[in-house]
Design goal:
Elements (H helix, E strand, L loop, with lengths): L8 E3 L4 E5 L2 E6 L3 E3 L7 E3 L10 E10 L3 E10 L2 E7 L12 E3 L6 E4 L2 E2 L11 E6 L3 E5 L2 E6 L2 E6 L5 E3 L10 E10 L3 E10 L2 E9 L14 E3 L5 E4 L2 E2 L9
Antiparallel strand pairs: 1-4, 2-3, 2-10, 4-5, 6-7, 7-8, 8-9, 10-11, 12-15, 13-14, 13-21, 15-16, 17-18, 18-19, 19-20, 21-22
Length: 247
């Protein structure tokens, strides 16, 4: 493991594949996990495990103060176009000549034979979903919007506890479905609701996973609230609003 230039680099033994236009573009059993951002790692592929015949330089350079200058590539398979880059003269020795594929531009990603979504999974992120009979009461502008003793508490590394509650314990009459959809590599695809209380609308403040991934199935069909933005009472004790990127 390296912390060169304050960028964390760690080898992995997982087989990782990336596909575009029906072709396997890269297939490795020796990826590097590089934390380009603090929240999750990025896969770096050794050059010998990349089908470089599908890559062509764009002439553009991606600059990073901590990693150096990266050559940008177009990834072309028939009518499918993706993007990649490589630090051929990286400030981090382990990363020299490794290729990085821009996640959203590729069709499919696999760890071993399991498809992975959104971004690479962090080996240090853990999810514990625990049923609890502790009373959870949610208030918005002084109005109780949810009150339950049948919640599931989701503890996720780096995030505040999320309280997932049965819809039967939630004032669904105050909620309106929205078009917002987000995805999580650990939980699946979430849909959202806005809450209207005392004439004010709180946009996309409630979410739930109808069909979560198997490891998160305990929260299937339940809903949760942004405790950064509303008041949550746990056993009638008001919880401090956490400060996160969602605040």
């Amino acid at each position: 493991m390296s912390d060169a230039g304050r960028v964390r680099v760690e080898p992995s033994s997982k087989r990782v594949r990336v596909m575009l236009g029906g072709e396997v573009i890269a297939d490795t059993t020796a990826p590097l996990l590089v934390w380009e951002v603090p929240y999750y790692p990025t896969y770096y592929f050794p050059p010998g495990d990349v089908r470089t015949e599908f890559l062509s330089p764009t002439g553009e350079v991606k600059r990073s103060p901590s990693r150096g200058d990266a050559t940008q590539y177009a990834v072309s398979v028939g009518d499918s176009i993706g993007a990649a880059y490589a630090f051929h003269d990286s400030k981090i020795p382990e990363c020299v000549d490794h290729y990085v594929f821009v996640w959203r531009t590729m069709d499919q990603w696999f760890e071993e034979d399991e498809e992975v979504f959104v971004h690479a999974r962090d080996p240090y992120t853990r999810l514990d979903i625990l049923p609890s009979s502790r009373r959870v009461r949610v208030e918005i502008d002084g109005v109780t919007v949810a009150d339950s003793i049948n919640g599931s508490f989701l503890h996720e590394t780096g995030l505040p506890t999320r309280y997932y509650l049965p819809k039967s314990d939630v004032r669904m009459d105050l909620l309106t479905p929205t078009d917002r959809v987000t995805a999580c590599p650990y939980k699946g695809t979430a849909r959202y609701w806005s809450a209207t209380v005392n004439g004010a609308t709180y946009e996309d403040i409630v979410w739930g996973y109808d069909e979560p991934f198997p490891e998160s199935e305990r929260i299937g069909g339940l809903v949760s609230f942004y405790n950064e933005k509303i008041d949550i009472y746990l056993d009638e004790v008001l919880q401090e609003r956490p400060r996160t990127k969602f605040s």
